[in-house]
Amino acid sequence: MELLSNPFYQRALAAAAFIGFTNGFFSGFVVLRRDALSVSALSHTMLPGIALGILATGALTQWNAFAGALFAALLVGLGSVAVSRGNRIAQGTALAVLYTASFAVGVAVLPLLKTRQQLEDWLFGNIVAVGNADLAISFATGAIILLTTSLLMRPILLTLFESNVAAAQGVPVRLMQYLLFGLLVLSLVSSLQAVGCVLSVGLLVTPAATVALLTDRTSALFWGGGAIGAIGSAGAVLLSAGFGISPGPAIVILLGLLFVGAYLFSPRYGLLFTKRH
């Protein structure tokens, strides 16, 4: 109860719930696209972006870390989509080349930085230290993601499942692909304060993957993923204080446990249920 009365902890809980809901909601698209490996690759491209932002400005702040991570992830993500347009190189191949090259740049730049110790918060998250500026960034990016995906849900899903049908109905398929990748990057960057670069993929894949073990309804992937992301993230922040571990890893651990629980005990696809039948 003492922690709950602390303004820093209140901000951390609000940020965890909102970031968890946003990423959990968007994880529905990641699961439907079967694109988890791309998310993992993009999450690693944020490190060189942050490193170059520090190198250019000489300091580590919320704004240059956010801007650097966003620029690097967008450059690599949208660049892989552009390279794959020629049909000679697959998007996954292009993404692998671009993300490893960018990550190598980040590793090369790290020894030149004077703020290497502070980078740990951006690598693994430190949501307890979230300030008003961080909260504003999280709410703004989350609102953009949720509003855009809600308004364009039908053409986005049509593009994912039936791109030829979507094109015949006048949906700008290429634009939708770029938009989805851009929103994916924005979702990753929005989770920086919560779980950092390294663990962000867990928050953007696990919630909808858990729901997929419980139901066949497509809409449930989004709203159910959002609910699991919000409850799991906020609950992990509360539990982390009791167990004495960092909130970032705690969020991913708790979401992972929920996934394992669904895998074992789901009445529809659970391992124990299917073995009985």
Summary?
This protein has 277 residues and is an all-alpha fold. It is built from 14 helices and no strands.
Task: Provide keyphrases for this structure.
mainly alpha; ABC transporter involved in vitamin B12 uptake, BtuC; 277 residues
Walk me through this protein's architecture:
By secondary structure, this protein is mostly helical. It has a single domain (3-272), classed as ABC transporter involved in vitamin B12 uptake, BtuC. The protein contains 14 helices and no strands. The chain has helices spanning 7-33, 36-57, 62-83, 91-109, 119-124, 132-151, 153-161, 163-168, 173-190, 192-203, 206-212, 218-243, 247-265, 271-276. The mean pLDDT is 81.
The name CATH uses for the topology is: ABC transporter involved in vitamin B12 uptake, BtuC
Radius of gyration, whole Å: 19 Å
Tell me the series of helices and strands, N- to C-terminal: HHHHHHHHHHHHHH
Quick one: CATH superfamily?
ABC transporter involved in vitamin B12 uptake, BtuC
**Overall structural domain count:** 1
Rounded mean pLDDT is 81
Shape: globular
Q: What is the class in the CATH system?
A: Mainly Alpha
DSSP helical segment count: 14
What is the second-level CATH architecture?
Answer: Orthogonal Bundle
* Helix/strand class: mainly alpha
**In angstroms, what separates the terminal alpha carbons?**
46 Å
Largest sheet: none
In which range does the helix fraction lie? Answer: over 70%
Strand content: under 5%
Number of strands: 0
Q: Regions with pLDDT < 50 over 5+ consecutive residues?
A: none
